[in-house]
């Protein structure tokens, strides 16, 4: 029994030590929580930042856009990562939050390679997801039933896709997956499957579909010729200061944007030739304003 | 007072230790109860908000089949119909329990009655190892082996209740088996000896005496398995297809309470209707496991009286 | 069919079932190992993970898994031991005990994501433990408690009542009888329960995503001072475990070799569980021999 007492003591000691340890040893620490699509980028940037600046600690966690926005709204964390404008999310008071756009993500429809279709119009794509088209031969493909795979309700990718493809139409109830990797492997292995993923997840196992001849490329996103894209946001509650401010500036700096952001498959903010606001209005960077669809 | 009397009246070290021991164990059990109460309160307070704050009708929550909390229907009411998930959860749970129980009971009998040596040496480690395989891995094997196999044999997409049943069957097998083993081991030896002495064969002894005596314990094991199946999220989510639709058959995509809960919870904002509706699903999950437990308690009591 | 034939038939069926179960496990193991082992190397086991390049390892995740398991067990075993003793030895057969038992059973059937979110709101935010090993260990404890308590209670109950009577007759108090007579006798059962619990803890992902976090900051394995944030022993650092890593790679991984890393990590996870099983069994037997007169 003695041994167990000793173990308890050791554990208690460890707890006590670590308890005072956190307050002193970490010079400065911040936490960023939220979007799992943005997590890899922030993580990589944090890693680089920490090698350049000794003694700071940036803790990056996923958990989803909803978690990121609710935690930043409550002030529980320093940065909330989101795939969506805070204005688009129910239950969030966007006025208290400050938006920092750090990257752009293009989203493309993908299909199983055996469907025999490479190009669709937006209307055809919309009808696939609303359930009006049930067989690939209706859009010039093989005689295969359409299997729609959606992302989970509330996911940022799904919200973006539905906003720019479905407009105000409702998608038909279908399979839902809560992660991009699952969506891709299901589309790759299920005949007739169609779904949508961010550009960086497209690989040889699935086929990315062009829309009315426009290919899903970074170039087409920067000019808004490919309309299905969204910003990646890092929200702070009020104006950032201290380490939070420096880290955000680091991510938004031209150097990080050009090297890290594009290397990881995101589109740098600096490369965009247009901007888009929360309502969907597209503004050419030259100042000419064109009307956003929907 | 003379020292002898004092020593007699003073509580002995042993008695103090006894008191302390009892206190420690009481403390531990109350800690668990407090944790459960806290979780229950936490889930209930959020889950009930759907009905009290967002004014969703309880009956339509249970009986409607459209799950789309972010969108209002023609009357302006949010569409939170949990019926597809309820059906899906019950479907996979019961089916996997139905498949797993014979296997588990058979394996347990093998381990306790037929060949305890081989049971201990081979089967027990095997079963413990099955517990150790993480649900993520089960899910991926399900996705890369079970789903294509079902697609090949039955057609369709392969996703659905059948695939979920297969995966859950393997996952709850260890739970049910090890609890059945415990139940069988708890049957006193003289029960078996009495039966054998009366000229019963081994199988007669097992089926008419041992199994009957262990029945409440076995049922508890089955319920524990079902509870695990009910609460399992990751693996089922990967193979069931996750479509909030009423399943037409065993191979059409369906969904469970946990799969919708797990996939949606990170994407919703605390306190919003979408989030509350998901917590209502969690509350439903809790209440169902409570109901299961009560049923089993009842069966257990009946079994005891008969014995 | 007479009783003898029935007996033989039943025996045959039981053997078949036993063989089938072993076959299921063998094929599962075979599948995982064949897919994963080719990717496992010393480098893979020791190097840190890469966020978006090929060639990442799982060294830190592996360490985190074991450390987290150790901590979770350190917290949950004493509590469930106490609770198990109470239920087996002291609890009266009344309504209150019934309620306690039901409460434990309900705790064991909670979906892990609910426990995870509860842990997130209580440990991470309320208690300010942050995304840390401690939060993770506490969340895992909540999982482990019902399973272990039940198991310990059952093991204690299985000890023959004569043993208790002997202890009491020797003038030991009830508590002393339990500690010195009943527990040593019940030890093999308790150890089995701990192995089962450990297996569940080792493979748990959903509860840890929100508590121990999904990032594994670089560790300095020369620094064993639990105060330092880079020390492996620090319990306030975020710690991605192997199971969480597999989940993350499969869901949002953008490494070109994500499938290989995930297969390799799964194989390592299984091997670790296997190793752990063997070790625990060996230690349990040694302990049993030491504590009883055998």
UniProtKB/TrEMBL annotation, chain A:
It comes from the Bacteria. Keywords: Cell membrane, Lipoprotein, Membrane, Palmitate, Phosphate transport, Signal, Transport. Residues 23-254 form the PBP domain. It is found in: Cell membrane. It is a lipid-anchor. The keyword Cell membrane applies. Residues 1-18 form the signal peptide. The keyword Transport applies. Pfam families: PBP_like_2. Involved in the system for phosphate transport across the cytoplasmic membrane. PANTHER family: PERIPLASMIC PHOSPHATE BINDING COMPONENT OF PHOSPHATE ABC TRANSPORTER, PHOSPHATE-BINDING PROTEIN PSTS 1. Belongs to the PstS family. The complex is composed of two ATP-binding proteins (PstB), two transmembrane proteins (PstC and PstA) and a solute-binding protein (PstS). This is Phosphate-binding protein. It comes from Lacticaseibacillus hegangensis. The lineage of its organism: Bacteria, Bacillati, Bacillota, Bacilli, Lactobacillales.
TrEMBL record, chain B:
The keyword Transport applies. PROSITE patterns: ABC_TM1. InterPro entries: MetI-like, MetI-like_sf, Phosphate_PstC, Phosphate_Transport_Permease. It is found in: Cell membrane. Keywords: Cell membrane, Membrane, Phosphate transport, Transmembrane, Transmembrane helix, Transport. Belongs to the binding-protein-dependent transport system permease family. CysTW subfamily. It holds the Pfam family BPD_transp_1. The chain crosses the membrane at residues 21-44, 86-110, 122-147, 209-230, 277-299. This is Phosphate transport system permease protein. It comes from Lacticaseibacillus hegangensis. It is a multi-pass membrane protein. Residues 86-296 form the ABC transmembrane type-1 domain. Part of the binding-protein-dependent transport system for phosphate; probably responsible for the translocation of the substrate across the membrane. Its main location: membrane.
TrEMBL record, chain C:
Pfam families: BPD_transp_1 (PF00528). Keywords: Cell membrane, Membrane, Transmembrane, Transmembrane helix, Transport. It is a multi-pass membrane protein. SUPFAM superfamilies: MetI-like. Its main location: membrane. Residues 62-280 form the ABC transmembrane type-1 domain. It is found in: Cell membrane. The chain crosses the membrane at residues 12-34, 66-87, 99-123, 129-148, 258-280. PANTHER family: ABC TRANSPORTER PERMEASE PROTEIN YQGI-RELATED, PHOSPHATE TRANSPORT SYSTEM PERMEASE PROTEIN PSTA-RELATED. Belongs to the binding-protein-dependent transport system permease family. CysTW subfamily. This is Phosphate transport system permease protein PstA. It comes from Lacticaseibacillus hegangensis. The gene is pstA.
């Amino acid at each position: 029994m003695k041994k167990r007492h000793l173990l308890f003591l050791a554990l208690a000691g460890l707890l006590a030590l670590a308890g005072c340890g956190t307050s002193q040893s970490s010079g400065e620490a911040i936490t960023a929580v939220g979007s799992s699509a943005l997590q890899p980028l922030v993580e990589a940037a944090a890693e680089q930042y920490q090698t350049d600046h000794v003694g700071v600690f940036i803790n990056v966690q996923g958990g989803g856009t909803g978690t990121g926005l609710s935690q930043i709204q409550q002030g529980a964390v320093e940065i909330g990562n989101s795939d969506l404008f805070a204005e688009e999310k129910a239950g969030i008071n966007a006025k208290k939050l400050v938006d920092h756009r750090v990257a752009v993500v293009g989203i493309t429809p993908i299909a199983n390679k055996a469907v025999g279709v490479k190009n669709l119009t937006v209307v055809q794509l919309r009808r696939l997801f609303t359930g009006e088209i049930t067989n690939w031969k209706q859009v010039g493909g093989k005689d295969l039933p359409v299997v729609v795979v959606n992302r989970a309700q509330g996911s940022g990718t799904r919200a973006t896709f539905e906003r720019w493809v479905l407009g105000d139409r409702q998608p038909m109830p279908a399979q839902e997956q809560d992660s991009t990797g699952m969506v891709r492997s299901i589309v790759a292995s299920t005949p007739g499957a169609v779904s949508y993923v961010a550009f960086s997840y497209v690989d040889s196992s699935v086929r990315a579909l062009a829309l009315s001849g426009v290919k899903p490329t970074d170039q087409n996103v920067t000019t808004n010729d490919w309309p299905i894209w969204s910003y990646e946001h890092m929200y702070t509650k009020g104006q950032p200061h201290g380490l939070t401010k420096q880290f955000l500036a680091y991510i938004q700096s031209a150097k990080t944007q050009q090297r890290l952001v594009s290397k990881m498959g995101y589109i740098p903010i600096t490369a965009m030739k247009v901007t888009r606001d929360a309502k969907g209005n597209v503004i050419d960077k030259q100042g000419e304003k064109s009307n956003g669809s929907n | 007072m003379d020292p002898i009397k004092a020593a007699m009246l003073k509580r002995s070290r042993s008695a103090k230790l006894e008191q302390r021991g009892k206190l420690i164990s009481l403390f531990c059990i109350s800690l668990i109860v407090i944790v459960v109460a806290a979780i229950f309160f936490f889930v209930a307070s959020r889950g009930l908000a759907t009905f009290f704050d967002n004014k969703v009708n309880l009956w339509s929550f249970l009986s409607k089949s459209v799950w789309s909390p972010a969108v209002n229907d023609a009357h302006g009411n949010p569409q939170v119909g949990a019926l597809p998930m309820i059906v899906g959860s019950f479907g996979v749970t019961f089916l996997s329990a139905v498949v797993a129980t014979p296997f588990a009971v058979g394996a347990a009998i093998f381990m306790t009655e037929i060949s305890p040596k081989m049971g201990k040496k081979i089967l027990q480690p095997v079963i413990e190892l099955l517990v150790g395989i993480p649900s993520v891995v089960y899910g991926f094997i399900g996705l890369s082996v079970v789903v294509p196999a079902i697609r090949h044999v039955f057609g369709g997409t392969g996703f659905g209740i059948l695939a979920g049943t297969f995966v859950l069957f393997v996952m709850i097998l260890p739970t049910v088996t090890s609890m059945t083993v415990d139940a069988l081991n708890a049957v006193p030896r003289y029960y078996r000896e009495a039966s054998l002495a009366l000229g019963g064969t081994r199988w007669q002894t097992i089926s008419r005496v041992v199994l009957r005596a262990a029945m409440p314990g076995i049922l508890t094991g089955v319920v524990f398995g079902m509870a695990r199946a009910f609460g399992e999220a990751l693996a089922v989510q990967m193979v069931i297809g996750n479509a909030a639709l009423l399943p037409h058959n065993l191979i059409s995509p369906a969904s469970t309470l946990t799969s919708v809960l797990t996939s949606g919870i990170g994407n919703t904002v605390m306190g919003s209707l979408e989030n509350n509706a998901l917590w209502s699903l969690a509350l439903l999950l809790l209440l169902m496991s409570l109901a299961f437990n009560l049923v089993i308690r009842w069966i257990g009591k009946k079994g005891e009286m008969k014995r | 069919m007479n009783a003898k034939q029935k007996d033989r038939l039943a025996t045959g069926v039981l053997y078949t079932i036993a063989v089938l179960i072993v076959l299921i496990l063998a094929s599962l193991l075979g599948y995982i190992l064949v897919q994963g082992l080719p990717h496992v190397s010393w480098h893979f086991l020791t190097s840190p993970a890469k966020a978006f390049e090929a060639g990442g390892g799982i060294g830190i995740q592996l360490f985190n898994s074991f450390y987290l398991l150790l901590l979770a067990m350190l917290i949950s075993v004493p509590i469930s031991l106490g609770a198990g003793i109470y239920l087996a030895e002291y609890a009266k057969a009344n309504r209150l005990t019934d309620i306690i038992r039901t409460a434990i059973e309900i705790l064991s059937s909670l979906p892990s994501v609910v426990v995870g979110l509860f842990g997130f709101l209580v440990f991470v935010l309320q208690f300010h433990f942050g995304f840390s090993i401690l939060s993770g260990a506490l969340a895992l404890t909540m999982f482990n408690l019902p399973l272990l308590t039940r198991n310990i209670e059952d093991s204690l109950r299985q000890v023959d009542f004569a043993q208790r009577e002997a202890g009491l007759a020797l003038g030991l108090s009830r508590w002393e009888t339990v500690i010195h007579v009943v527990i040593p006798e019940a030890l093999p059962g308790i150890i089995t329960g701990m192995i089962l619990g450990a297996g569940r803890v080792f493979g748990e992902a959903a509860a840890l995503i929100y508590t121990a976090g999904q990032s594994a900051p670089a560790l300095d394995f020369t620094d064993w001072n639990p105060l330092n944030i880079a020390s492996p022993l620090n319990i306030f650092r975020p710690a991605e475990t192997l199971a969480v890593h597999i989940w993350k790679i499969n869901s949002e991984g953008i490494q070109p070799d994500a499938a290989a890393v995930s297969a390799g990590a799964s194989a390592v996870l299984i091997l670790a569980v296997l190793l752990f099983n063997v070790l625990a069994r060996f230690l349990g037997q040694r302990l049993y021999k030491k504590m009883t007169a055998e």
